[in-house]
Amino acid sequence: MAPIAITPEPSRSATPQLKTPTTAWSPTEDNVSSLTLAGIEHALPSKNASSAGQAPLDASLLQIELTQSPRAVPAPESPEVAAQKTCTDHMITARWTLEHGWHAPELKPYGAFSIMPTASVLHYATECFEGLKLYRGFDGKLRLFRISRNCQRMRKSAARIALPDFEPKELEKLIIRLCAQDGEKWLPKERPGSFLYVRPTCIATDEALGVQRPQEALLYVILACFPDMTKSKSAPAPPALNGASNGTKKAPSSGLKLLASTEDSIRAWPGGFGYAKVGANYGPSLVAQGEARARGFDQVLWLFGSESYVTEAGASNFFVVWRNKTTGRLELVTAPLEERIILEGVTRASVLELTRSRLSEAMGDVEALDVVEKRFTMADVVSAYREGRLVEAFAAGTAFFIAPVSLIHFRGEDLVVPTEEGESGVYTRVVKEWLVNIMYGKETHEWGVVVDEVA
């Protein structure tokens, strides 16, 4: 059973229940105070680690050692890229110790590093990471998308699992420096529209086997060749749509096919760490994901509680577009952040911000819609489906980017999600185009951070 958060309430039911917060989360408010929240507050001082007498993470101290054994760049869509094991020539590392703080970071040849068998990360899941992409624009420039948000989120994730604090801007500088070093070779200008996956990671390397706050840690950044998930073929039609159900249904030819989770499968819970990008959120979900794929689905649609609140699709944020039953207006709906169950996705935030600013009024033939962040259940989705109010659905994240959803299987029923334009819905296409234009330089925007390549 999933652990239940400690709360100041006099009693709690055995089954975790969602509560509606009255205000945004704040670790200093009495009504939400707890050991965990107080600990996170102390881990995120108003100033950097130097306030505790420790050396802060400082990108200006970067030491550089270039490789003498350059690695071969694989061809696009090759088996090497599909394997997701090939990284660029260099990586960034930075060591932290309790006695000193952050040591000088290094840019050095990509390769293995050693940790002791008793290292904290191997026993207590003291690890967090980020995922973003370096893009080769159609204008020939390299760009990172909203990198500052990834660095800020990684700081929050590190605090959640007792890893050392750092100034997000310094991590951003280190990531940009690595991208500047390897970007020209690994994303050549003759391959516009391509990308590398950027993976900053922090692990506790403390040799002590006891359960305690780590006294040593390693921060590192790598760039990996990664397949374009938006071009991946969807899984085969699930058995329910593969001749086993009534003849009125037709298996969608594209789009994600989601299998809704059951009450005994919980990805995250209030008071837990679902909002943090830590490895412990992903490993336990692999069994359910594997079973879903064995049944012909692409991902698990994670639900929470007996009410079946909709949270995430696999490791991505989930959106539906439906027509409000009362007002008749179209709405873009996604789960809220306040209960800290879902990840505060960078793509999620971008979808919401762009839609609010660009579709508050009709855009040509595209009808305006309202953006709503709220709790909603599978019963709400089923009702919209049966009443013909469900317009479309999609998942949003770094890996799958903006992926249309074509089917949701829930308690024996297949909901064939409309895809008005064949492979996706209108709003899925429009939102994806907006983001692609920013990421690849077709639209000049502050979110696209240009990386100056090293000559």
Automatic annotation (TrEMBL):
InterPro entries: Aminotrans_IV, Aminotrans_IV_CS, Aminotransferase-like, B_amino_transII, BCAT-like_C, BCAT-like_N
Sequence similarity: Belongs to the class-IV pyridoxal-phosphate-dependent aminotransferase family.
Biased composition (Polar residues): 10-29
Transferase recorded as keyword: yes
One example of a Gene Ontology biological process annotation: L-leucine biosynthetic process
Reaction it catalyzes: L-isoleucine + 2-oxoglutarate = (S)-3-methyl-2-oxopentanoate + L-glutamate; L-valine + 2-oxoglutarate = 3-methyl-2-oxobutanoate + L-glutamate; L-leucine + 2-oxoglutarate = 4-methyl-2-oxopentanoate + L-glutamate
Protein name as it appears in the record: Branched-chain-amino-acid aminotransferase
Family annotation (PROSITE patterns): AA_TRANSFER_CLASS_4
PANTHER family according to UniProt: BRANCHED-CHAIN-AMINO-ACID AMINOTRANSFERASE (PTHR11825:SF69), SUBGROUP IIII AMINOTRANSFERASE (PTHR11825)
Keyword Amino-acid biosynthesis part of the UniProt annotation: yes
Region (Disordered) residue spans: 1-29
GO molecular-function term, one example from the UniProt record: branched-chain-amino-acid transaminase activity
Pfam families in UniProt: Aminotran_4
Modified residues annotated as N6-(pyridoxal phosphate)lysine in this record: K277
Entry cofactors: pyridoxal 5'-phosphate
Keyword annotations: Amino-acid biosynthesis, Aminotransferase, Branched-chain amino acid biosynthesis, Pyridoxal phosphate, Transferase
GO cellular component annotations of the record: mitochondrion
Enzyme Commission numbers on file: 2.6.1.42
Signal peptide: none
